[in-house]
Amino acid sequence: MRPVAPITAPASRAALVVGTRLGAQPAFVVEEHLDELEDLVTSAGVRVAGRAVQARQAPNPATFIGRGKAEEFGRGARQLGADLVVFDDDLTGSQVKNLEEIMELQVMDRSSVILEIFGQRARSREARTQVELAQLNYLLPRLTRRWRHLERQVGGIGVRGGAGETQLEADRRMLRQRVRRLERELVKIERTRAIQRRGRRGVPEVALAGYTNAGKSTLFNALTASTTPVEDRLFATLDARLRRGAVAPSKVVVFADTVGFIRKLPHHLVASFKSTLEEVVWADVVLHVVDRSHPRWEEQMEVAEGVLRELGVEPERIVPVFNKSDLLPGGERRDGGALWISASTGQGLDALKAELARRLELVRP
Q1: In this structure, is the dihedral angle defined by the CA atoms of residues 182, 187, 188 and 190, taken in order, positive or negative?
Q2: Per residue in 68-98, pLDDT tens?
Q3: What residues form DSSP beta bridges with 45?
Q4: Which terminal CB of the chain, N or C, has fewer other CB atoms within 10 Å?
């Protein structure tokens, strides 16, 4: 277990992040995943005080990492001044309950941190509805008398203490009823989106997709002459944003900026954000934006490709775009079947527009 240097203006809460190296998994992979988890925790407004890794052949059914390690990590977290322990793997409700009892600290996993961030960033009615639905679907199978950290996001629905299993069943019924109401509300939102989409049927649409923080919003601004603020943080964009832009003198298109993808993105989150991600599903062309300067760009590209496949986006509609090329060494090869650009400097944008015009001419002559 090792401490992490405090960030500037540290948050009021601090966390120990924990990774698990299972079987023959390479150690560097676990460390890379923890790097991203640290970014997630920081994006949620929590200071990362330290990190720890436990090697196991398989997860422990009761505590995931074993009771001895849980006690050790709990002591270490308190010594570092942490009041929260965040695991990089998904935990069951009973594992969270057992770990909290042993560590005497609050315990979260990667999915719950992502949901926490989404809850903080949701602004529109649609985003708030989708986030709450995802949170409830995550919470339902994990509901126990000790599960409290999502109460604020779900409007106080959850464990209130009291009558044991009878109370738990009552809470589950209320959550299921709320899930059904939210699902009905999202159906209405999807119908409204479909009507809006029909209204712009004569204008081709280009969606920007890819790993979170790959520079999609910067590229969106460059292509649409928009001045939407761009933030260097994970999941800065939740709602799909639509703006018109030109790819040729007589070729106007609608560009859609969408929520970013991430490793281990919870499936229920993808399902909940279906109406937002439909901009990707229905687009004539999808620009898969990749941060080519990132040391793990290939893995990020594979993650995004997996989500696009899950959404049913055909490969022939996808155009890979290697962004942030200005941050690469001058001698680096510019190949790989993708367009190389720098959204921040404008490098390569003319070639990108020309390729878009060519592709759109094929699908919208």
Answers
A1: positive
A2: 999 999 999 999 999 999 999 999 989 999 9
A3: none
A4: C
**Domain 201-363: which CATH number of 3.40.630.30, 3.40.30.10, 3.40.50.300, 3.40.50.800:** 3.40.50.300
Query: What residues form DSSP beta bridges with 108?
Result: 86
From the number of C-beta atoms within 10 Å of its C-beta (0-12, 13-18, 19+), residue 36 rates as buried
Give the pLDDT of residue 149. 40
**Tokens 């939407």 map to which residue?**
228
Give the number of residues written for the chain: 365
Backbone phi, psi, residue 38, to 5°:
-60, -45
Question: What is the pLDDT, as a whole number, of residue 163?
Answer: 45
Q: Are 122 and 238 in contact (CB under 8 A)?
A: yes
Domains 2-115 and 201-363 share a fold: yes
CATH number of 2-115: 3.40.50.11060
Spatial neighbors of 183 by CB under 8 A, at least 6 apart, are 133
Taking a C-beta distance cutoff of 8 angstroms, is the pair 45, 120 a contact? yes
pLDDT of residue 222: 95
Question: Phi/psi zone of residue 252: left (φ > 0), alpha (ψ -120 to 50 degrees), beta?
Answer: beta
Q: Which segments in the chain show pLDDT lower than 50?
A: 4-10, 146-164
How confident is the model at residue 119, as a pLDDT? 82
